[in-house]
Design a protein that fits this description.
Blueprint (H helix, E strand, L loop, with lengths): L1 E8 L4 H11 L6 E4 L2 E4 L2 H15 L4 E7 L1 E3 H8 L3 H9 L6 E3 L2 E5 H18 L14
Antiparallel strand pairs: 1-4, 2-3, 5-7, 6-7
């Protein structure tokens, strides 16, 4: 998994940290307002936000980053329903972005999903389903 652009935020001033600590005392019910609309967070998101707020309430600096799932070519091909060889050829042609970890290719899950969406749109606009690729023609 690749880490994406971390953001570091300095700790809160002592007075603000104390107020936040008091507000969080014994409560893990977090409600978020986005453009005036109330959103109740699902448990996993709530736990992440509570952890973040707990750290701020202790006056700690916090680094937030996200992790993007990177797939092997075998896993990406399986997900896309195409052969491993066909997928490798597409990465060689630049049709699907690839990153190298040493000599091993890694493909972002988001890139495979975007490719699949494009295939779906193309097959819908053509009125026919996309051809299946088994890689047999690619092996030569």
């Amino acid at each position: 998994m690749a880490q994406i652009a971390p953001r570091v935020t300095a700790g809160l001033p002592a007075e603000d940290a104390q107020k936040l600590k008091y507000a969080l005392n014994g409560s893990h019910d977090i409600t978020v307002f986005v453009d005036g609309t109330v959103h109740r967070l699902p448990p996993a998101a709530r736990d992440g936000v509570v952890d973040l707020l707990d750290r701020f309430s202790r006056g700690e600096s916090v680094t937030v980053s996200s992790v993007e799932e990177m797939l092997t070519t075998s896993r990406a091909a399986e997900l896309a329903g195409i052969s491993h060889t066909y997928l490798r050829n597409m990465t060689d042609r630049g049709e699907i972005p690839v990153e190298y970890r040493g000599t091993h290719r890694r493909i972002r899950l988001a890139d495979i999903m975007a490719w699949l969406e494009t295939q779906k749109k193309n097959s819908t606009s053509d009125g026919v389903s996309a051809p299946e690729h088994d890689g047999a023609a690619d092996a030569s």
